[in-house]
Each structure stands twice: as C-alpha cells, then as structure tokens.
Amino acid sequence: MNLVLLEEADFEEAAASLASLADGAPRHVVLTGRRLLHLRTVHRAEQGRELRVGLIDGRVGSGVVETIDAERARLRVTLTEPPPAKLDFTLLLSLPRPKTLRRVLQMAATLGIPHLVLMNSWRVEKSYWKSPQLHSAALREQLLLGLEQGGDTVVPQVELQRLLVPFLRDEIEGVARGERLIAHPSATTPCPRHVDGPLTLALGPEGGFLAEEVELFERHGFTPVSLGARLLRVEQAVPALVGRLT
Amino acid sequence: MNLVLLEEADFEEAAASLASLADGAPRHVVLTGRRLLHLRTVHRAEQGRELRVGLIDGRVGSGVVETIDAERARLRVTLTEPPPAKLDFTLLLSLPRPKTLRRVLQMAATLGIPHLVLMNSWRVEKSYWKSPQLHSAALREQLLLGLEQGGDTVVPQVELQRLLVPFLRDEIEGVARGERLIAHPSATTPCPRHVDGPLTLALGPEGGFLAEEVELFERHGFTPVSLGARLLRVEQAVPALVGRLT
After folding, report:
1. Which of A4, A6, A114, B228 has its CA 20 to 30 A from that of B173?
2. pTM over 0.90
C-alpha cells in the first residue's frame, strides 16, 4: 500500500461532493478495518507519521496520523496533486481463471490501464464466467488494491463481454482506440515498440486464440503481433507488453 | 507446461552424455510423477498424441505418446532444434519474500533471463535468507517450471549474494555485462527503451533501495533510471522492464 485510498465516507467533515474535497484544504478522516490493520502492522504508523493518501477518483496528497489505536486511526489529510496519468491503452483480455484474474485486475490498476474488457473466447472455461470474482464488489476490491500499489486513485473501467462475435460486430468501434493489435505467438510481425498515441491490445487465454478468432479480430482491424518464441503467462504478458508498447 | 522437460535419466537407451542425445535420432523416455499427472489431467494425452519436449540444457523436439496409463507414459522423442535464444540480460534482484521469489524464478526462466543474482539490501528481511526456497533443489524446481512455460531447456544460473558491499566491491566486474542500470523510482532519468547489446539491471526490494545503496551502485557504474510515478510489484516490474529494455 504505497498510497492509502480514501472514500468520501471516511471524512469527518460533511462533503457535498468529491469536487469540494479537492480544494487542498486540510480535512480529517477516520480509518478502521483493513486499512487500519495495514497502517499498524505493515507501516507501523504512530502519531505524527506522514503517509501518502488519495481520494478514490480524486486527488492525492499527504495524511498525518493524529491518533492511532487498535480501534481507529484519525488522519489530517491535504489533497493537492492530481493522480498519475493513465496509459492510453485499452486491454481486451480473454477471461483468465479466477486466481489469475485477481492478479491481473490489480496489475491493470497498478500499471495505469484505464479500460479493461474481459471477453470470452473458445478456450475460456465456461465455469470462469460463474466466478464470484466477477461480481462488481469483488472486481472493485482488486482494482483498489492495485491502485494503492501504484499510487493512483482513478478506478479503471472493467467491462464483461460474454459473447465474442457480437462484441466485435456491434461494440468494438466504440471500445477500441487507436492502433489495434492482437498478441498471437505464431504471428510473423514482431510486436512493435513504444507506440505513440492510443492503443488497443487483445490478449488470448491460456492455450491461445483459435486461428478463426485471430481472423475475426483481423477483420475488425487488428494486426497479429508476436512477442517471440516464449509463451508467457497472462500475468507476465500484460506487464511485458505494457513495457514494450508504451 | 508448453514443453515437457526431460532428464537424461528418463531415457530408456543408455546415454553416454547429453551430447549423444542431440543427434536427432528417435529415442524413448518413460515419465512418471508430476509430468505424467500433467500429461493425463491437463493435456489429456492419449496414445498417438504429439507433444513438444526438450532435454534439460539440450535440444527441443517432439514426443509421441506410445503408451500412457496411471503408472507411466512412454514417449518416442526426437530432439532436433536448439532452444530459444536467451536474453543478454543479467538481473540483480534484492531477495524477495519466498512466495514472490517462487514466481520471480519461474518468470526469469520463462522470459529467458540467463543469469539472476539474488542479493541482500537494507530492506530485505533477514528471515528471507533462511527460506527453504533458497535450497538448490527448490530453486531448480521453480526454474524448471518456468522453462516448461516458456518452451526453453537451459536452466538459468542463480547466484546468492548475502552481502551487498563485498559483492559490489569484489565480484561485480565478473558478473555485470554491458550497460549497467539500477531501477529507482525517484531517478530523474527515464528507463531507456530497447537497449542493444548486453544489459545488467539492479532491482530493489519492496520499499526500494536506500539512497546510500543507490549511490553505492552508482560508484560501480550503474545509472539510476525510473519507470515512472507508479510503483510496481517485483513480479510486475521484472516483465515490464524486460519488455521495455530488450
């Protein structure tokens, strides 16, 4: 937790809106539960300790611990800076297994990916779509953990697309921004480096896309590109592709 | 397991040396234990199925299942191709917590990092050095899993350096190849892209290197570079840096 994420409800002062909290004036928050535990056990925070804090979907700044005990921590916070810029990157990802999904959600938030589409493809196991990890509260929990790691406050948009063909036919034009790439190990074009401007990347499931699926993406303007002979796990491929492409 | 890794002992034919197995002539292996289980439950391999196989530290090729049951699988293997090229990349990594270490070892092998130095630094918890994950058999187990994912056979070299100052003073000249970089969030130089030629990268622990440690690396020719405002977890930073630098 490199940044303590705050919700409006944490503030002692009545806040008319998120906007009114962004004026840089000091205010007070009370933290309990997971965040208190983290402050006590990991940060070993005591009175006077200054921590990096941020308001969800708002500004970042500093929080000074005024009191802390087993029940609650009270911090005086000043929110002065905008959060770090997001990447201009849309990730279309075949739904991974639930355990991997949690890591990928955190990672997407940490890396600054603003828009993640979890989509179906032939080799996605049907049972993955029934995972409680796809409930919006569970998605948000993982995204917030990732934001706390990356020092960001702006919750990425996550979209579920359970049907690949209609998604590409009816919605891709509204979703895909900029250059369109699909990662495919047997592509002959190497993945480009440092693409300027917006970018949309489709990444397949374990075992990869079917050739027919790659062709479908190609018909919608996606170029198949390869990362080389080595097959990476999804949670390795996402940061490797972000590192290479952005 | 995108490639089934074979050991010399798996071969029915008496093999004088690893070299004698690399002539491309078909031979037979018998698999039991973890690899058999994986063939049966994940690959659902039956008689006649062709799989990608490779001899540890040797060639890759194909293996055709001749018989398979609950006790053993017998494959006819032909090893014809060299394994994929390694990166020209030396990673000096502050020893992570054991759970992260397992993932980083697998990842290093999958990504094609040939040489990994696990080193001490101020913020590495002393207890991590006592982890059974550092025993050579445990290290090798994780490296082999990573090789099987990446389709490689050549086991990366892993070195333990429990004392940072003597390591840098006495051994760094023999270890570091090419350009020397140290990842440090507050560096003013952005991390370069696509460095041609050999590269040595130092990556700190959770919480980062001390300023004094960064200065020590600088005195040994390392340039501090930043990946930007976002703080990545080690298992995200390694592939992101490999993707960007190579």
Report:
1. B228
2. yes
